[in-house]
Amino acid sequence: MWAFLFIVAIAGLAAVHWSWRKRCRELNRVLDRSMREVEALKEHHLETLAHEHAQQQALFNSMTEGVLLLDQQGRVRLINQGLERLFNLSYDIRGQTIMEAFRMHELRDIVNRTTVEGHVLAEELDLPGLDNRCLQVNAATILNREGKHQGILLVFHDLTRLRQLENTRKEFVANVSHELRTPLSLIKGYVETLIDGAKDDPAVAMRFLQTIEKHADRLTYLIEDLLTISRLESGQIVLNMQAVALRPLVDRVVIDFESRTAEKKVAILNQVPTELTVRADADRLQQVLFNLVDNAMKYGKNEGRIEISAKNAGEDKAVEMCVADDGPGIPPEATERVFERFYRVDRARSREQGGTGLGLAIVKHIVQSHGGEVWVTSDPGNGAKFYFTLQRE
Ligand code: ADP
């Protein structure tokens, strides 16, 4: 009897033990699965974080503005590529103070003011050591939820190009006012002298009236050239690109100068090969040639010779045209500058010839809008050669 009970108890215990082991194995399996899930979730989370970080970094670095983050101790914590470009930084400045990194008192003052005032807006910073770059700085403190200072964020915007454009605009307006005022005050002076009595002497009156007419013409040319420049620059002139046979176009320009060539006894030679055809806006191309021949007439010598030629330049379907004269030419230091608006080698001679100082600027603009280049070579005393390129049709 006891033996039977003992066996039953042992069997019972074995059954309990077996069921516990089974349960333990199941629990272990569940635990393993959960651990794997947790690992997978952790990995996914890390991947998402890395992806977001890469996106933020790409965004941060694609900004043209320079961004600089200072920590609570005023040390550089983060910068983007925009900032490296703006300050030509060639080494890592993280961990340095503003003064160590940039050696600029103005920048340190901006940081100090930001600490006190919370933010500094639209402060301008000149960098004479860095190609006269001019930057606009916006700075703000970063606070945590409790309002505790965490650092300072500075954003730098490059104003250099804007400044240059503004200076060019101011210079242009000043030049235009001067160019308009000069003939106007001369006209006014002659009119006053005529009113004061010169009108009573027919010979003097005629001379004065001719001078007045000359200055009035100059004003007209100037206004025409200014309108052309302004239309070209604002993109109002849309090029009507077509196949243009060069030789007949040059013939038309030569005809425009017939009376002046007779007067100055100048020969204009069209040496353009008959078969050359380019892709261009015919009216604008005629204007380029007109301006170049006009200059060759104005600054070339009496009984001189002007040659207009063209040839295949070989590379990339280009055609090179040349207008050459045998006048006094252009000094080497002026060959780059003659294409600038209102630049003249000899101001008095240009005025006397009715020049506006805009002819070559117009030429350059038209040629460049055709995708070409323009340049001049000159052997002073032996004439000037103006070249430009166009696309062959
Ligand atoms: P402008 O109305 O004064 O002629 P341009 O822009 O056409 O203005 O030319 C600028 C300057 O370049 C001229 O004032 C002149 O000094 C110089 N120049 C242009 N073409 C010639 C040339 N063929 N020979 C000598 N000087 C020239």
Describe this structure in words.
By secondary structure, the protein is α+β, with helices and mostly antiparallel strands. It is built from eleven helices and twelve strands. The strands form two sheets. Strands 6, 7, 8, 9, 10, 11 and 12 form a seven-stranded mixed β-sheet that branches. The chain has a five-stranded antiparallel β-sheet with strand order 2-1-5-4-3, with helices on both faces. A hairpin with a 5-residue loop joins strand 3 (119-127) and strand 4. Helix 5 runs antiparallel to helix 6. It is elongated, with a radius of gyration of 40 Å. The termini are far apart. The model has no long low-confidence stretch (mean pLDDT 93). The chain binds adenosine-5'-diphosphate. Adenosine-5'-diphosphate is lined by residues 295-296, 298-299, 325, 327, 329-330, 338, 343-346, 350, 355-361, 384. Residues 295-296, 298-299, 325, 327, 329-330, 338, 343-346, 350, 355-361, 384 line the site of adenosine-5'-diphosphate (ADP).
Features:
single chain, 393 residues, alpha+beta, seven-stranded mixed sheet, five-stranded antiparallel sheet, 12 strands, 52% helix, 21% strand, binds adenosine-5'-diphosphate
